[in-house]
């Protein structure tokens, strides 16, 4: 059955929830990634962005705000509308595009690659292990040199996060952080920085996918799809 991805966001409004803890961790690491990005333009890409609460909770007040252009890819039109409202309210309409599209297909966001900051939050609890592996392995090719990936995955048994961390390492990311709130098994946040040896997707508008290191087929499919 199709999950209600609008209602899913309600837990964010309860500060005691695992999801609120996770959001704070993601926002903190996102703020840090923007701060430490090299001087100049920063390209941010968020797949399955939902209402964009991570990005839009950080960007409006961040010192690098004017350097950032962001693409938020989200399939649910109600979440797209919500995120677009948040973008407009923050005065970021020229800088943040909320794209209603299937983020499982590289072609829908290929023009936004390579990303300096890539958010893969709220995906890995909803897709198969092989989809997670494929996405982690493709992530380096989606990131610019020294680009940062921020990902999440719950730690319910059997806890897959040790494997996911090793997949990102295999893909060419050095681990910056892994956060797991001890009492909250929903919370697992990984942060990696791309090492310089991995292939990078070439820059440029209108470039068709796939490019080096990116799979031609789907990255992932949500179980409820
Ligand atoms: C668990 S929520 C995470 C939202 C957001 N990233 C966050 O962490 O707050 C997953 C989101 O992915 C969206 N989604 C599911 N399948 C998708 C797909 N193939 N392409 C784009 N978005 C998708 C859902 O509509 C939902 O908003």
Describe this structure in words.
It is a single chain. The chain has helices at 18-36, 53-56, 77-89, 129-142, 161-171; strands at 42-47, 68-74, 96-100, 115-120, 143-152, 173-179, 189-194. The protein has 225 residues and is an alpha/beta fold. The protein has one domain: Rossmann fold, CATH 3.40.50. Strand 2 (68-74), helix 3 (77-89) and strand 3 (96-100) form a beta-alpha-beta unit. The radius of gyration is 16 Å and the shape is globular. Mean pLDDT is 92; it is low at 205-210.
Q: Uncertain runs with pLDDT below 50, 5 residues or more?
A: 205-210
CATH topology: Rossmann fold
Largest sheet: 7 strands, mixed
In round numbers, the mean pLDDT is 92
**Structural class by secondary-structure content:** alpha/beta
Which hetero compounds are present in the coordinates? S-adenosylmethionine
Percentage of residues assigned to helices: 25-40%
**Structure annotation, total helices:** 5
CATH superfamily: Vaccinia Virus protein VP39
């Amino acid at each position: 059955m199709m999950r209600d991805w609008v209602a899913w966001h309600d837990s964010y409004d309860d500060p005691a929830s695992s999801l609120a803890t996770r959001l704070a961790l993601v926002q903190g690491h996102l703020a840090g990634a923007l701060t430490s990005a090299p001087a100049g333009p920063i390209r941010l890409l968020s797949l399955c962005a939902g209402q964009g609460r991570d990005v839009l909770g950080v960007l409006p007040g961040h010192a690098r705000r004017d350097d950032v252009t962001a693409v938020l890819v989200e399939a649910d039109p109600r979440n797209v509308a919500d995120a677009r409202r948040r973008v407009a309210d923050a005065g970021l309409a020229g800088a943040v595009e909320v794209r209603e599209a299937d983020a499982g297909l590289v072609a829908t966001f290929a023009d936004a690659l390579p990303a300096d900051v890539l958010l893969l939050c709220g995906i890995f609890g909803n897709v198969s292990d092989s989809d997670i592996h494929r996405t982690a392995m493709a992530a380096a090719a989606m990131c610019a040199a020294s680009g940062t990936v921020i990902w999440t995955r719950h730690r319910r048994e059997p806890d897959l996060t040790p494997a996911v961390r090793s997949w990102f390492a295999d893909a060419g990311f050095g681990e910056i952080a892994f956060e797991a709130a001890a009492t909250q098994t929903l919370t697992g946040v990984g942060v990696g920085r791309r090492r310089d040896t991995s292939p990078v997707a070439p820059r440029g508008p209108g470039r068709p996918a796939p490019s080096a290191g990116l799979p031609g087929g789907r990255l992932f499919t949500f179980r409820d799809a």
